[in-house]
Amino acid sequence: MHALIVDDSRAMRSIVRKIVTGLGFTTEEAGDGAEALAAIELGPTPDICLIDWNMPVMNGLELVTAVRSRPEWRNITLMMVTTESEHGQIVRALAAGAHEYVIKPFTPDAIVDKLALLGLLPEGASA
Amino acid sequence: MIEEAIDNPTVEDLEAITRDVWESLQLDGAGEDSPPSSSTSTESVTASVSVSGDWNGHIAVQCPHATAQDLTSAMLGMGLDEIATEDVVDAVGELVNIIGGNVKGLLSSPNQLSLPQVVIGPAEGTHWPKTDEICHIEVPAARGPVAISVWSSTGG
Questions:
Q1: Which residues on chain B are in Cβ contact (under 8 Å) with A19?
Q2: Residue B98: which of A55, A87, A105 has the nearest Cβ?
């Protein structure tokens, strides 16, 4: 399993990376939506993108919309990992094509539980 | 966590949010093994985000530079000697982003959250023109407390 972590904060990317690599994921990182799109184009295609909302250059919602506009990327799971907790914002992200939504601050278990719900826990990892 | 929107956050709201953030980022005990900071050091780190929309105001985190280094070390899992200034800016900026985002989540929608602004410099009180400080808490830390405040625009 390969995860692309998209967040403008290096600290937050580090925290998420430790959680998912502990589960057996390989990871790649991007500091904004545009960098993420470039990384997906370059490959390998991630199984999941963990996406912050508020980022410079291209925000998380724009990234979700861009990924969902590409049929060849329809198998990429998109999970928002963000401080945006307003109900309307969650609805917007899900309507744009995000599969799951985790609100910061989160515990490692919150990420693991969502990955389990999505059927994306690598073999041997447990929720 | 989706709760009924409120007009203004309270100290209790800010304390609950901060407690969640400290627990999830494992910041309790940050800096306990750090060397004492110089008594002459007056440099502080101030990070803020702005909320605009139905509610307008700012959320700020301010602490001594040594405490900011300790928080950064805890968040990144790195030693103090490995931390660069850009790491401190990034980590404290993310801290205020998370706290500010959760404060925004309590308020009446819709609102926009800005990207964090982080300033490192001489310790001065945090203030914005045409605003009132409506919440202020201090989180004890080994090398000086972390002040967290919410400022509401008075309009005009």
A1: none
A2: A105
